[in-house]
Amino acid sequence: MLNNSIHIILAEDHLVVRAGIKAMLEREPGFIVSGEASNGREVIALLENGTPADIILTDVNMPELSGMQLTEWISENRNYLKVIVLSAFDDEQYVINAIKLGASGYLLKKITPEELVFSIRHIMGSGQYICAELSSRFFMRHIINAADPVSANPTLNIEFSTREVELLRLIADGYTNLEIADKLFTSVRTIENQRQQMINKTASRNTVVMIRFAMLNGII
What we know:
The chain is an alpha/beta fold. It contains ten helices and six strands.
């Protein structure tokens, strides 16, 4: 990363959608969209031509080389890069496949700008992120095998406040950061910070593992 900026290559074959995502990202201080592509082959060409990148933000369905194929190529050839899949597909198999192929994140296109920014910063801190809506109890039982396992033994030295338990339950039920903020009468930024603090507290790599930890240890 140069000058503490996060360089992002954006891969999306719909020009209007790509322009909207680019404008949103470039409003965030420290975010630089260093390259744009309409398919995976164009992303590879950008990388091979020296385009600076820390994160590849990619759609799933693209012509010539899909987002999943691109994720696999990056995992095999540029594994120091982080891949975030930004998709309209909420089917669990897409999420599982993306994580298994090496993606660091899976987001739905309907997430808020705040959650997109949070996910990028979290992933750049060596974490993984699956958007809040997909981190529900329904997905938890299936996705977890593609994520890091956690101990099923009770952990007595970690205490959660009443507010934290409430937040854990809302995350597990699939509410977005914005929806949780509305329910708890606070800001999205506060919810993002509290979520990250709990991820750190439980030594989890992502929200999915944190919620599984909470479920296995009887916290929720």
